[in-house]
Design brief:
By secondary structure, the protein is an alpha/beta fold. The chain is about 35% helix and about 25% strand. The strands form 2 sheets. The protein has an 8-stranded mixed sheet with strand order 6-7-8-3-9-10-12-11, with helices on both faces. Strands 2-1-4-5 form a 4-stranded antiparallel sheet.
Protein backbone atom coordinates (compact mmCIF):
# COMPACT_ATOMS: atom_id res chain seq x y z
CA UNK A 1 0.00 0.00 0.00
CA UNK A 2 1.38 3.42 -0.98
CA UNK A 3 2.56 5.71 1.81
CA UNK A 4 1.14 9.20 2.27
CA UNK A 5 3.62 11.75 0.93
CA UNK A 6 1.62 14.95 1.59
CA UNK A 7 -0.94 15.67 4.29
CA UNK A 8 -2.62 19.06 4.48
CA UNK A 9 -4.82 19.92 7.45
CA UNK A 10 -7.01 23.04 7.80
CA UNK A 11 -4.72 25.01 5.47
CA UNK A 12 -5.35 28.74 5.39
CA UNK A 13 -3.80 31.52 3.35
CA UNK A 14 -5.27 34.97 3.80
CA UNK A 15 -4.16 38.08 1.95
CA UNK A 16 -4.80 41.66 2.98
CA UNK A 17 -6.30 44.04 0.41
CA UNK A 18 -5.21 47.64 0.99
CA UNK A 19 -7.62 49.65 -1.10
CA UNK A 20 -8.43 53.24 -0.37
CA UNK A 21 -6.49 55.94 1.48
CA UNK A 22 -7.58 54.87 4.97
CA UNK A 23 -6.30 51.31 4.59
CA UNK A 24 -2.99 52.56 3.14
CA UNK A 25 -2.47 54.99 6.03
CA UNK A 26 -3.40 52.50 8.75
CA UNK A 27 -1.65 49.54 7.13
CA UNK A 28 -4.89 47.58 7.46
CA UNK A 29 -7.48 46.45 4.97
CA UNK A 30 -9.92 43.73 4.03
CA UNK A 31 -8.73 40.18 4.68
CA UNK A 32 -9.17 37.96 1.61
CA UNK A 33 -9.50 34.24 2.47
CA UNK A 34 -7.82 32.82 -0.66
CA UNK A 35 -7.53 29.41 1.02
CA UNK A 36 -9.81 28.93 4.00
CA UNK A 37 -9.60 25.63 5.86
CA UNK A 38 -8.56 23.07 3.22
CA UNK A 39 -7.65 19.48 4.14
CA UNK A 40 -6.55 16.60 1.89
CA UNK A 41 -3.81 14.02 1.51
CA UNK A 42 -1.79 12.67 -1.39
CA UNK A 43 -0.12 9.26 -1.60
CA UNK A 44 2.99 8.20 -3.47
CA UNK A 45 2.36 7.45 -7.16
CA UNK A 46 -1.05 9.16 -6.93
CA UNK A 47 -2.61 12.16 -8.66
CA UNK A 48 -5.07 14.47 -6.94
CA UNK A 49 -6.83 16.84 -9.35
CA UNK A 50 -7.79 20.29 -8.12
CA UNK A 51 -10.54 22.04 -10.09
CA UNK A 52 -12.67 25.16 -9.86
CA UNK A 53 -13.06 28.50 -11.60
CA UNK A 54 -10.41 31.23 -11.56
CA UNK A 55 -9.94 32.89 -8.19
CA UNK A 56 -11.04 29.90 -6.10
CA UNK A 57 -7.56 29.38 -4.59
CA UNK A 58 -6.15 26.42 -6.57
CA UNK A 59 -2.77 27.93 -7.41
CA UNK A 60 -2.47 29.43 -3.93
CA UNK A 61 -2.86 25.94 -2.47
CA UNK A 62 -0.16 24.61 -4.80
CA UNK A 63 2.29 27.36 -3.91
CA UNK A 64 1.53 27.14 -0.19
CA UNK A 65 1.96 23.37 0.19
CA UNK A 66 5.40 23.77 -1.42
CA UNK A 67 6.09 26.67 0.96
CA UNK A 68 6.69 29.06 -1.92
CA UNK A 69 4.07 31.09 -0.05
CA UNK A 70 3.85 31.05 3.73
CA UNK A 71 0.56 29.73 5.16
CA UNK A 72 -1.61 31.82 7.48
CA UNK A 73 -2.68 28.74 9.41
CA UNK A 74 -3.06 24.97 9.31
CA UNK A 75 -0.51 22.19 8.95
CA UNK A 76 1.53 20.81 6.04
CA UNK A 77 3.29 17.46 6.44
CA UNK A 78 5.59 16.29 3.66
CA UNK A 79 7.20 12.86 3.79
CA UNK A 80 6.21 12.51 7.45
CA UNK A 81 7.82 15.84 8.43
CA UNK A 82 5.90 18.94 9.48
CA UNK A 83 7.17 21.69 7.16
CA UNK A 84 4.58 24.34 8.09
CA UNK A 85 6.97 26.61 9.92
CA UNK A 86 10.37 25.58 8.58
CA UNK A 87 12.73 28.42 7.73
CA UNK A 88 14.03 28.95 4.19
CA UNK A 89 17.35 27.39 5.22
CA UNK A 90 15.59 24.35 6.70
CA UNK A 91 13.46 23.96 3.57
CA UNK A 92 16.38 24.06 1.15
CA UNK A 93 17.31 20.33 1.44
CA UNK A 94 13.64 19.46 0.76
CA UNK A 95 13.27 21.67 -2.32
CA UNK A 96 14.59 18.99 -4.64
CA UNK A 97 11.90 16.56 -3.45
CA UNK A 98 8.95 18.87 -4.18
CA UNK A 99 8.79 20.86 -7.39
CA UNK A 100 6.30 22.90 -9.40
CA UNK A 101 5.44 23.03 -13.09
CA UNK A 102 4.32 26.63 -13.55
CA UNK A 103 1.39 27.63 -15.73
CA UNK A 104 3.48 30.20 -17.59
CA UNK A 105 5.43 28.31 -20.25
CA UNK A 106 8.42 30.64 -19.80
CA UNK A 107 8.50 30.48 -16.00
CA UNK A 108 11.76 28.94 -14.87
CA UNK A 109 13.30 29.24 -18.35
CA UNK A 110 15.90 31.99 -18.48
CA UNK A 111 15.36 33.66 -21.89
CA UNK A 112 19.10 34.27 -22.21
CA UNK A 113 20.15 30.67 -21.51
CA UNK A 114 20.14 27.85 -24.01
CA UNK A 115 18.29 24.64 -23.18
CA UNK A 116 21.53 22.77 -22.46
CA UNK A 117 22.61 25.41 -19.95
CA UNK A 118 19.17 25.42 -18.30
CA UNK A 119 19.31 21.67 -17.71
CA UNK A 120 22.95 21.82 -16.60
CA UNK A 121 22.07 24.48 -14.03
CA UNK A 122 19.20 22.36 -12.69
CA UNK A 123 21.47 19.32 -12.35
CA UNK A 124 24.09 21.23 -10.36
CA UNK A 125 21.90 23.30 -8.03
CA UNK A 126 21.81 20.55 -5.35
CA UNK A 127 24.71 18.32 -6.43
CA UNK A 128 28.22 18.57 -7.87
CA UNK A 129 28.28 15.84 -10.54
CA UNK A 130 31.17 15.36 -12.94
CA UNK A 131 30.95 16.68 -16.50
CA UNK A 132 30.51 13.13 -17.76
CA UNK A 133 27.64 12.54 -15.30
CA UNK A 134 26.01 15.82 -16.34
CA UNK A 135 26.13 14.82 -20.01
CA UNK A 136 24.68 11.40 -19.20
CA UNK A 137 21.87 12.89 -17.12
CA UNK A 138 21.01 15.48 -19.80
CA UNK A 139 20.67 12.72 -22.40
CA UNK A 140 18.52 10.77 -19.95
CA UNK A 141 16.27 13.80 -19.33
CA UNK A 142 15.84 14.42 -23.07
CA UNK A 143 14.82 10.80 -23.50
CA UNK A 144 12.36 10.99 -20.62
CA UNK A 145 10.55 14.01 -22.08
CA UNK A 146 10.89 12.98 -25.75
CA UNK A 147 12.93 16.00 -26.80
CA UNK A 148 15.53 15.98 -29.58
CA UNK A 149 19.17 16.52 -28.66
CA UNK A 150 19.40 19.28 -31.26
CA UNK A 151 17.13 21.44 -29.04
CA UNK A 152 19.93 21.81 -26.47
CA UNK A 153 21.38 24.66 -28.55
CA UNK A 154 18.09 26.58 -28.71
CA UNK A 155 17.01 29.58 -26.66
CA UNK A 156 13.49 29.35 -25.13
CA UNK A 157 12.04 31.80 -27.68
CA UNK A 158 13.15 29.44 -30.45
CA UNK A 159 10.98 26.61 -29.09
CA UNK A 160 7.32 25.79 -29.68
CA UNK A 161 4.88 25.81 -26.77
CA UNK A 162 5.02 22.02 -26.48
CA UNK A 163 8.83 22.04 -26.52
CA UNK A 164 8.94 24.73 -23.81
CA UNK A 165 6.66 22.59 -21.66
CA UNK A 166 8.91 19.55 -22.15
CA UNK A 167 11.99 21.56 -21.20
CA UNK A 168 10.17 22.81 -18.10
CA UNK A 169 9.27 19.24 -17.14
CA UNK A 170 12.85 18.08 -17.78
CA UNK A 171 14.14 20.88 -15.57
CA UNK A 172 11.85 19.71 -12.76
CA UNK A 173 12.87 16.06 -13.23
CA UNK A 174 16.56 16.99 -13.06
CA UNK A 175 16.45 17.18 -9.25
CA UNK A 176 14.59 13.84 -8.92
CA UNK A 177 11.46 15.08 -7.09
CA UNK A 178 8.91 12.92 -5.31
CA UNK A 179 6.04 15.43 -5.48
CA UNK A 180 5.17 17.71 -8.40
CA UNK A 181 2.55 20.44 -8.32
CA UNK A 182 1.44 20.82 -11.96
CA UNK A 183 -0.32 24.17 -12.37
CA UNK A 184 -2.34 24.17 -15.61
CA UNK A 185 0.34 22.16 -17.46
CA UNK A 186 -1.77 21.88 -20.64
CA UNK A 187 -2.94 25.50 -20.88
CA UNK A 188 -1.96 27.61 -23.91
CA UNK A 189 -1.26 24.44 -25.94
CA UNK A 190 -3.00 23.00 -28.98
CA UNK A 191 -5.28 20.03 -28.30
CA UNK A 192 -2.89 17.54 -29.91
CA UNK A 193 0.04 18.89 -27.86
CA UNK A 194 -2.09 18.78 -24.70
CA UNK A 195 -2.64 15.05 -25.26
CA UNK A 196 1.10 14.52 -25.69
CA UNK A 197 1.88 16.37 -22.45
CA UNK A 198 -0.78 14.41 -20.54
CA UNK A 199 0.57 11.10 -21.84
CA UNK A 200 4.09 12.21 -20.94
CA UNK A 201 3.11 13.06 -17.36
CA UNK A 202 1.25 9.75 -16.94
CA UNK A 203 4.21 7.80 -18.31
CA UNK A 204 6.63 9.59 -15.98
CA UNK A 205 4.41 8.78 -13.03
CA UNK A 206 4.41 5.08 -13.90
CA UNK A 207 8.17 4.90 -14.39
CA UNK A 208 9.33 7.24 -11.62
CA UNK A 209 6.58 6.79 -9.01
CA UNK A 210 5.77 10.51 -8.91
CA UNK A 211 2.93 12.07 -6.94
CA UNK A 212 1.05 14.92 -8.65
CA UNK A 213 -1.16 17.70 -7.39
CA UNK A 214 -2.73 18.47 -10.76
CA UNK A 215 -4.36 21.90 -11.07
CA UNK A 216 -6.47 22.50 -14.18
CA UNK A 217 -9.58 24.07 -15.71
CA UNK A 218 -9.74 21.24 -18.23
CA UNK A 219 -12.18 18.84 -16.57
CA UNK A 220 -11.84 15.94 -19.07
CA UNK A 221 -8.05 16.06 -18.62
CA UNK A 222 -8.42 16.11 -14.83
CA UNK A 223 -10.73 13.10 -14.99
CA UNK A 224 -8.25 11.28 -17.24
CA UNK A 225 -5.09 11.82 -15.19
CA UNK A 226 -6.41 11.94 -11.61
CA UNK A 227 -7.09 9.20 -9.10
CA UNK A 228 -8.98 11.62 -6.84
CA UNK A 229 -10.52 15.02 -7.53
CA UNK A 230 -11.09 17.94 -5.15
CA UNK A 231 -13.54 20.64 -6.27
CA UNK A 232 -12.87 24.13 -4.90
CA UNK A 233 -15.18 27.09 -4.49
CA UNK A 234 -14.07 30.42 -2.98
CA UNK A 235 -11.19 29.05 -0.94
CA UNK A 236 -12.79 25.83 0.26
CA UNK A 237 -13.13 22.25 -0.98
CA UNK A 238 -16.83 21.58 -1.55
CA UNK A 239 -16.54 18.01 -2.86
CA UNK A 240 -13.84 15.38 -3.03
CA UNK A 241 -13.73 11.75 -4.12
CA UNK A 242 -12.56 9.29 -6.74
CA UNK A 243 -12.21 10.92 -10.15
CA UNK A 244 -14.68 8.63 -11.89
CA UNK A 245 -17.27 9.06 -9.13
CA UNK A 246 -16.96 12.85 -9.13
CA UNK A 247 -17.36 12.96 -12.92
CA UNK A 248 -20.23 10.46 -13.15
CA UNK A 249 -22.10 11.02 -9.88
CA UNK A 250 -21.37 14.52 -8.56
CA UNK A 251 -23.27 15.30 -5.37
CA UNK A 252 -22.55 19.01 -4.86
CA UNK A 253 -24.60 21.37 -7.09
CA UNK A 254 -21.44 23.32 -8.03
CA UNK A 255 -19.70 20.13 -9.16
CA UNK A 256 -22.77 19.20 -11.23
CA UNK A 257 -22.68 22.55 -13.00
CA UNK A 258 -18.94 22.25 -13.70
CA UNK A 259 -19.17 18.77 -15.18
CA UNK A 260 -22.27 19.59 -17.19
CA UNK A 261 -20.28 22.45 -18.70
CA UNK A 262 -17.59 19.94 -19.70
CA UNK A 263 -20.24 17.77 -21.37
CA UNK A 264 -21.40 20.85 -23.31
CA UNK A 265 -17.75 21.60 -24.22
CA UNK A 266 -17.78 24.86 -22.26
CA UNK A 267 -14.87 26.10 -20.18
CA UNK A 268 -15.28 26.54 -16.43
CA UNK A 269 -15.11 30.30 -17.02
CA UNK A 270 -18.05 30.26 -19.47
CA UNK A 271 -19.89 28.01 -17.02
CA UNK A 272 -19.22 30.51 -14.21
CA UNK A 273 -20.62 33.41 -16.23
CA UNK A 274 -23.72 31.40 -17.06
CA UNK A 275 -24.38 30.67 -13.39
CA UNK A 276 -24.78 34.35 -12.58
CA UNK A 277 -25.81 35.23 -9.07
CA UNK A 278 -24.21 37.58 -6.58
CA UNK A 279 -20.76 36.61 -5.37
CA UNK A 280 -17.55 38.23 -4.20
CA UNK A 281 -14.22 36.41 -4.43
CA UNK A 282 -12.77 38.70 -1.77
CA UNK A 283 -15.65 38.41 0.70
CA UNK A 284 -17.58 35.11 0.36
CA UNK A 285 -21.21 34.86 1.44
CA UNK A 286 -21.93 33.75 5.00
CA UNK A 287 -23.20 30.23 5.56
CA UNK A 288 -22.97 28.26 2.31
CA UNK A 289 -20.68 30.25 0.01
CA UNK A 290 -22.34 28.87 -3.10
CA UNK A 291 -25.90 29.70 -2.02
CA UNK A 292 -26.21 33.00 -4.00
CA UNK A 293 -25.57 31.07 -7.24
CA UNK A 294 -26.94 27.67 -6.29
CA UNK A 295 -29.87 26.22 -8.28
CA UNK A 296 -30.62 23.73 -5.50
CA UNK A 297 -30.92 26.57 -2.98
CA UNK A 298 -33.53 28.18 -5.21
CA UNK A 299 -35.39 24.88 -5.74
CA UNK A 300 -35.53 24.27 -1.99
CA UNK A 301 -37.24 27.62 -1.44
CA UNK A 302 -34.14 29.51 -0.25
CA UNK A 303 -33.92 27.82 3.19
CA UNK A 304 -32.43 29.90 6.01
CA UNK A 305 -29.90 27.21 6.93
CA UNK A 306 -27.98 27.94 3.73
CA UNK A 307 -27.34 31.58 4.66
CA UNK A 308 -26.98 31.18 8.43
CA UNK A 309 -23.41 32.27 9.35
CA UNK A 310 -23.39 29.63 12.09
CA UNK A 311 -24.17 26.73 9.73
CA UNK A 312 -21.56 26.71 6.99
CA UNK A 313 -21.86 23.16 5.62
CA UNK A 314 -18.88 20.95 6.60
CA UNK A 315 -17.48 18.20 4.40
CA UNK A 316 -19.36 15.03 5.28
CA UNK A 317 -19.06 11.45 4.06
CA UNK A 318 -21.87 10.48 1.67
CA UNK A 319 -20.45 7.05 0.77
CA UNK A 320 -18.44 5.72 -2.16
CA UNK A 321 -15.38 7.53 -0.83
CA UNK A 322 -17.07 10.88 -1.47
CA UNK A 323 -17.21 13.87 0.88
CA UNK A 324 -19.50 16.82 0.16
CA UNK A 325 -20.08 20.22 1.79
CA UNK A 326 -23.80 20.68 1.13
CA UNK A 327 -26.81 20.57 3.45
CA UNK A 328 -28.91 18.79 0.80
CA UNK A 329 -26.39 16.50 -0.94
Amino acid sequence: MSATILEVTDLRKHFRSRRGLASVLTGQGRVIPAVDGVSFYLKENETVGLVGESGCGKTTIGRTVLRLTDPSGGRIVFGGRDITHLSRAELRPLRREMQMIFQDLDAGLNPKMRVGAILREALTVHERPSDAEIERRIRELLEQVNLKESKLANLPNELSGGEKRRVGIARVLAVRPRLIVADEPTSALDVSIQAQVVNLLRGLQRHLGLAYLFISHDLPVVELVSHKVAVMYLGRIVEMGLAETIAREPRHPYTRVLWSSAADKQSTEVCARNMGGVFDFEQPARGCRFAPRCPLYQQQGRPAICTDPASEPPLRDVGNGQVVACHFA
